[in-house]
Amino acid sequence: MPKPEIIGSARSTYTRVVRMVCEEKGIDYVLTETPLGAPELLVIHPLGKMPVLRHGDVQLFESKAIASYLDRSFPGVDIFPSDPCLAALTEQWVSLVNTVMDRTLIRTYLYAYIAPKTPDGKPDRAAIEAVMPAVREQLGILDRAVAKTGYLVGDQFTFADINLLPILDRVRLAPEGAEALAAAGHLAAYYDRHAARPSFVRTTPPAGPPGRAKPN
Known about the structure:
By secondary structure, this protein is an alpha+beta fold. 54% of the residues lie in helices and 7% in strands. The protein contains nine helices and four strands, in the order E-H-E-H-E-E-H-H-H-H-H-H-H. The protein is globular and about 50 Å long. The mean pLDDT is 95.
């Protein structure tokens, strides 16, 4: 069986999530660096988003689906708990982060810095100021969630944590995000603790957002 091939960009938060799964489980994988919308992505993902996975005859898109497949297909630590309640809690936090918090923290707040729609290309201060109450509110929700055990789910490191950490890493790169994260004391300690994990360190991305494929 060939190595799992992750097709995406090291700069993508969700590509990093899948790479962290491989690192946590000790899976020998290949990262094929590619821009958003590249033909290699469109072969598997109908919208050309990243990451996608190719493993023998298996082709998958969406990071959660890829992570589930890798967790069930390879030995090593389980990143999705087998206990029904803990498994449901993992799904709960992944769903909230992916459907609500990613849109606030990355697609709105961070993109106002890295992909502003301003005429001069400078950070969109109006968008930043408008979204900051939601940024602080959502970091506060996460702060309370990790306060008791230092994990999102029970007292173990799960896919819920893997799915969140790359987003927090990006948020702290901009000044208001860094300040809001530092003010959430439990969440800041949570980030610092888990940012030392080898899986997180070995997947540290280069600076900048993922590039886009050039039109033909």
